[in-house]
Amino acid sequence: MAAEGIAWIGPGGALDRDSPAVVALPAGPLVCDPARLYDLAVPARLGAALEQALADPAVRAVVLDLAVASPAAAAPGDLLAAEAGFAALAARIAAAPKPVVALIAGPVAGPLAALALAAALRVAAPGGQIGFPEIGLGLVPGAGATQRAARLAGAGPGLAVLMSGAMLPAAGAQAAGLIEMVTQAAAPAACAAAAALASAREGGAPLPFARDPQRGLADPAGFLAAVAAARARLSGPLPAPGQIVDCVEAALLLPEAGGLALERAVFEMLAASPEALALCALAAAEARAWEAASAAPLPGPVAMAGAPDLAADLLAGGVPVRLLGPDVAALRALLEAIAARQEAAVREGQMTEPARDAAWDRLSATTDAASLADCRVGLGAGELLVGALLPGAVLVPLDGETRLQRHRPPEGPPLLELVLPEGAQADVGLGLARATGRVPLIGRGAAPGAGLLAALRHAAGDLLLLGASPAQVDVALWGFGLAEGPFEAMDRAGLDPSSGLAAQLVAGGRTGRARGRGFLAWPGGAARGQDDPAVLELIAEERRAQGLAQPGQGMGPAEICRLTLAALANAGARMLSAGIVASAGDIDLAAGAALGFPRHRGGPMHWAGASGGRTGLLAMRNALKAQASALPPDMAGFWTPDPLWDRLIREGRRF
């Protein structure tokens, strides 16, 4: 027993008769694997241990430790069955004949957080966190979370935590009314509270510590006002946020059983939605990538020539960095930039002063290349480092062709895209990602993001020859959800005078948005470009030169999106076949980072398999073939399907 008469159920789901201890959790980006979040084995293990404790006459109360330090990877399973298992366990906890106290000693998320809300009392360590990431998966929080959060905290605080998707620190959760006690000695405090609750229940006295579990419903008018305010703020294409608001409203309007039934029905509906399937697939890819990174060893001393921001990230992650510069002045500039980055992190609360000092102690600087001979990894200017490292060391240039990109997509965790040279071990890239706290995206010999961007621009250019206009392409892809249309993006960056139609535009003074005209016209600094008649005439001339028929009505948005997505998926298939990336999920991660591909669509590889049901891959392969046949032979190669399409179709598989 953790204390006399108190059963301790640890994160593994077994009765723990040793002294409880707070679990230390590893740092890293917030990734959410739906297979781990809703793992059917977890409620089964916890439920069995709970029943054992409740059946033991020597047990007066139960402490349920919900922090999971390093859960084993879960196989993709039945999401609905897992949610039902958690819901049944939450109901059992809420109705248990003996007090159940939830201990929140670290991050407790999703259905485990729902179990905490079902307990008689919640005790947290200062480092504890509670959160509901389901909204990021296109789902409503399950296992009764929407009902119990609203009843405990009210609509305003309840909706804030349910709809943010973020982890709420223990102090904030206590202020919101979701946690009753926060203390440094959380484990013994949870045992003491459980014993006190048991004594009060056995003696028929009022329960100490615990507050009314329906306290959030005490002000119906305020509750409904908070619901109305949340509903007025709803925007975007996802149904889950509005459904969460509806479920929270039901906590006031329906009996508890009715609210729980509504939540369950909504969870089932959303779990089958295209948005949730896409978001879950993307989240699973992120989780797999981060799991590989978190298991990789940190690299030894890293030689760097330039990139002070990256150097600061590596130092903060525990990696020794040795700066190489051509002269003292260049080194001084690098050191000052790193110091400024660290001071900013301290000011913003992202780093403590002792952590800054420890990171600085891991930094050294030199102009003597010979002193870097023991470094096995080099990042930066190739001409400085190439002669400094021993044979076998991995050199990743950061100049010229982009070899490393730090992406922070609008949604989802930050990524580190790294192109490893031939022969380099993947552990090098994974260790760098772990040190910087970013999900790794490893390319072999080529950058996945750059490859997708090139494919998008190539496809967009070919669509002009087949009847679309630049504005039609951009508008169609905006409607699909891309952050920026390809022609808008090229105009913003400035046109490349060495390629195709862009070269003709540059020769005519149409260099991009800064000049007010490129592929599109930008009159008066307009927020969106519009088709330029002169550019449309150039496109028509190019069609005639290629022997292509002049279009009638142009090309509709659906056709533009279908062909563009097919081209991106084909580019991804080629990268898979060439061994540039390890999985289709890596392509989808690259699409989000490099193209602003809408997260709720998953990515081009997920889209290729999910759209059109069982025949989706076949239909997309046929669209590629038709496009290839519509273009001159010297242009058809880009659209010719990679052989991987036929193999997957033959085997009944998806990317």
UniProtKB/TrEMBL annotation:
Pfam families in the record: ECH_2
InterPro entries according to UniProt: 6-PGluconate_DH-like_C_sf, ClpP/crotonase-like_dom_sf, ECH_dom
Limits of the Enoyl-CoA hydratase/isomerase domain: 89-191
Keywords assigned by UniProt, alphabetized: Isomerase, Lyase, Multifunctional enzyme
GO-annotated molecular function: (3S)-3-hydroxyacyl-CoA dehydrogenase (NAD+) activity; isomerase activity; lyase activity
GO BP annotations listed: fatty acid beta-oxidation
The protein's name: 3-hydroxybutyryl-CoA epimerase
